[in-house]
């Protein structure tokens, strides 16, 4: 999906949720979908990563498992648009961070869209995406994570803050073997002595 297809897909999801008379739903989305929504990247995405659910009052809660009404509506969208059945998934909410531990900056610059009366989608902003992409780059070997970081262009301070937070809260160690290469690739090799 490109940006246009993403928005059309979510619009259809909103239509189906309205048709079914479901309760209002507010998704918090990261990954490639958020990069597209913020126009930080043009790389198409195959799915929509739901990081969390937001209650209508604003509280952030886990998205795993997705409510049955969302699953049913997403299945209808998949059939209508010939998408994978798991095009809308909350695996990131299951295997990701403890939402309560995320730094305040993670929730900054969210971009929220309304798709009908029953669906809102908040796309994780640039500060949160930088943290997520550094986490992905340290945790797996996929070139797209580096490419996405290059699109995000984290500053020296953003890079240091994100990597130091990840080492303290996620990797539970003082260093990580991938950090020197990662810093070299994104143009901040000079930070290596300070982080590792």
Describe this protein's structure:
The chain is α/β, with parallel strands linked by helices and 196 residues long. The chain has helices spanning 3-20, 31-37, 68-81, 91-95, 126-139, 143-152, 156-169, 179-185, 192-195, and strands at residues 25-30, 48-54, 60-61, 88-89, 111-114, 119-123. It folds into two domains: 3-125, no CATH class; 127-195. Strands 1, 2, 3, 4, 5 and 6 form a six-stranded mixed β-sheet that branches. The model has no long low-confidence stretch (mean pLDDT 93).
SSE map:
Elements: H1 3-20, E1 25-30, H2 31-37, E2 48-54, E3 60-61, H3 68-81, E4 88-89, H4 91-95, E5 111-114, E6 119-123, H5 126-139, H6 143-152, H7 156-169, H8 179-185, H9 192-195
Parallel strand pairs: 1-6, 2-4
Antiparallel strand pairs: 1-2, 2-3, 5-6
Please count the helical segments.
9
Gyration radius, rounded = 17 Å
Query: Unreliable stretches, pLDDT < 50, 5 or more residues?
Result: none
Overall body shape: elongated
Question: Structural class, from helix and strand content?
Answer: alpha/beta
Overall pLDDT confidence: 93
State the end-to-end CA separation. Answer: 38 Å
Helix content estimate: 40-55%
Count of structural domains: 2
Q: What composes the largest sheet?
A: 6 strands, mixed
- Strand-residue fraction? 5-15%
Series of H and E elements: HEHEEHEHEEHHHHH
* Count of strand segments: 6
């Amino acid at each position: 999906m490109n940006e246009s297809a993403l928005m059309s897909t979510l619009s259809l999801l909103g239509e189906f949720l309205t048709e079914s008379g479901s309760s209002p739903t507010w998704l918090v989305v990261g990954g490639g979908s958020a990069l597209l929504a913020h126009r930080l990247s043009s790389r198409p995405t195959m799915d929509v990563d739901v990081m969390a659910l937001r209650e209508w009052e604003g509280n952030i809660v886990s998205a795993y498992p997705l409510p049955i009404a969302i699953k049913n509506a997403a299945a209808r969208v998949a059939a209508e648009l010939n998408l994978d059945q798991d095009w809308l998934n909350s695996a990131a909410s299951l295997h990701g961070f403890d939402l309560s531990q995320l730094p305040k900056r993670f929730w900054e610059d969210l971009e929220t869209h309304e798709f009908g009366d029953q669906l809102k989608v908040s796309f994780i902003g640039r500060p949160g995406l930088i943290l997520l992409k550094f986490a992905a780059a340290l945790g797996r070997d996929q070139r797209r994570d580096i490419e996405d970081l290059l699109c995000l262009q984290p500053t020296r301070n953003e890079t240091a803050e994100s990597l130091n937070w990840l080492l303290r809260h996620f990797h539970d160690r003082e260093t990580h073997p991938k950090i020197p290469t990662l810093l070299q690739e994104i143009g901040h090799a000079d930070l290596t002595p300070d982080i590792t």
